[in-house]
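Fold it.
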Amino acid sequence: MNDSILIIGHPASGKTTFIAQFLTRIKKRKSDVKLTQIPKDISAITDAVKRLSMGEEPLTTSASENVELTLPIEVDGKRIDLVCPDYGGEQVNDITELMELNKSWMSLLNDSDRWMFFIRPHEIMHEYDLSKNSYEEMDISQGTDLVNAGLSAQSKFIELLQTLLYAKNKGIKHSIKTPTLLIVQTCWDEMRTERKPLEVLQNKLPMLLHFVETVWDKDFFDVLGLSAQEFPLDTDEAKTKYQDELPENFGYIVDQDGKRDKDITKLVKVFLPS
């Protein structure tokens, strides 16, 4: 198995905040995950780390800023590269809109057998039931444009996964075991829900979940929740709390059973080869 984990996500899917918190925790020894060497270039998240330390929200990375970041880490004695190739997300958009993959992406796909797919479910603005017979039976109080937005998002996610699998020369006649797939639903605190991650995905993106369940072996994909920041930094009280208690002490992941774990670095341990 190739020793890298590829983080994939559209713009504003939470990649920057996660990596900033991930790296800060490792540096402050708040995790048993270790850096094996100093990363070559962390410019993509330097501002995010600084802003969090000041109790301020990280800025959304410009869509034109296609920066690749690789963190060489050690997890349970195994050396792995955690790779986020596209902070701005423009390349990810191009993959689905233009059906194009550059040489760098092809290389990264060939070198990775573990994918972390970041989705921000709160941005999928409408929950709907495709079993309904008509729009009238749906809750369309916010307008049918939101229904269309939900359908469009699902199509884009599915098309992206299909394109990446095709580029990696992975057919779907048999259940896929590699690459393993971890769907990470980010900004979980925005959801204000007690539902389990799989239930949220089923309600928000049923077509995507059906695709994944159909294509991947059930033991080689998982669905989790992530709140890398834990709460919005939109009040003076919240900002002061972050400054006083330090950013690396905030954030959590939500497992299959809906249980929270404060160690967000455990995401890299899912599907870790034995």
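Strands lie at 4-9, 34-35, 69-75, 78-84, 114-119, 180-185, 221-227, 252-254, 260-261.
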